[in-house]
Specification:
Helices cover 32% and strands 24% of the residues. It has five helices and five strands, in the order ββαααββαβα. Strand 3 and strand 4 (82-92) form a beta hairpin. Helix 1 (36-48) crosses helix 4 (97-116).
Length: 146
């Protein structure tokens, strides 16, 4: 028996005759199951990506973050590949609440569909807190003495 012909590191003759080259039908490929935790993380990332939403670090101190009292707060109810999402967000002043809430709903709907394959039936966004812009900027940086 001869060895398969090789060109450099590329195998030119596949010794496994049982490997099928044609694509499988979509029904034969299997099922994708997305964990609830993934849906929560994608939702949280989509919310925090909208301009005007306060980052979690600006909405609670160290103890508050440890106890889960920071914003955004996300509650997702799922049935198969469909979801309903309830959100509470903190808004940075002076962003308009209606516009930010609408953009949050659109971002969550788009990101869940694209990244997780989850169809969103409803998104309810509540602006639970308004944050001063100086709290979002973080502590002032120290200036170096020259």
């Amino acid at each position: 028996m001869s060895e398969p012909a090789r060109g450099g590191d590329v195998l030119l003759d596949d010794p496994r005759p049982d490997v099928r080259a044609e694509a499988l039908d979509a029904a034969d490929r299997g099922v994708l199951r997305v964990a609830d935790r993934v849906v929560d993380k994608v939702t949280r990332a989509a919310v925090l990506g909208v301009a005007g939403v306060a980052p979690a670090a600006a909405t609670a101190g160290t103890v508050g973050r440890a106890l889960g009292r920071s914003y955004p707060q996300v509650v997702c109810s799922r049935a198969g590949d469909r979801a309903r999402v309830l959100l509470e967000i903190a808004l940075v002043w002076p962003y308009p609440a209606a516009r930010v809430a609408r953009e949050v709903c659109e971002a969550v709907t788009d990101q869940l569909l694209v990244l997780a394959g989850v169809q969103v039936d409803e998104v309810r966004t509540t602006v639970a807190r308004i944050i001063d812009p100086s709290d979002v900027a973080g502590p002032p940086k120290e200036q170096r003495v020259r």
